[in-house]
Amino acid sequence: MTWVRGRRLGIDVGTVRIGIAVCDPDGILATPVETVSRSRGKTRGSDLDRIAELVDEYEAVAVIVGLPRNLAGEESFAADAVRAFGTEIEARISPVPLEYFDERMTTASASRALRSAGVSAKSARSVIDQAAAVAILQGWLDFAR
């Protein structure tokens, strides 16, 4: 794989919220951006619109989406839903490429890190998805470099 300089977005897709992270143009460090609420009903698609806006805003060269896998490394039951959502993202951000990256244990490790930093469970809800997105993107960056 040839390294292309530029920012990348990391995405942790949940059933209620979507965590977003971004890296610096050199791909050294992932940082949290925001948490986007999943849209349903009348607001359907607003989450996809926001992700597309962030891709444009950060001039992302790629989007990395966390893919749920079980401890054995097989895709978990949630992987189909994430892939379906990823397909919708791809349609909105083309020609920016989208890749999937193993997200095993990212939410659990993000939750532990926030707890050990003294963040309450109630406060953590608003940032846990961002922290998981950071873990996904940082893992991909470390793997790709």
Automatic annotation (TrEMBL):
Keyword Nuclease carried by entry: yes
GO process terms (BP): rRNA 5'-end processing
EC numbers, comma separated: 3.1.-.-
Annotated compartments: Cytoplasm
Keyword annotations from UniProtKB, A to Z: Cytoplasm, Hydrolase, Nuclease, Ribosome biogenesis
GO molecular function: hydrolase activity, acting on ester bonds; nuclease activity
InterPro entries: RNaseH-like_sf, YqgF, YqgF/RNaseH-like_dom, YqgF/RNaseH-like_dom_sf
Role description: Could be a nuclease involved in processing of the 5'-end of pre-16S rRNA.
Protein name per UniProt: Putative pre-16S rRNA nuclease
Species this chain originates from: Gordonia effusa NBRC 100432
Organism ancestry: Bacteria, Bacillati, Actinomycetota, Actinomycetes, Mycobacteriales
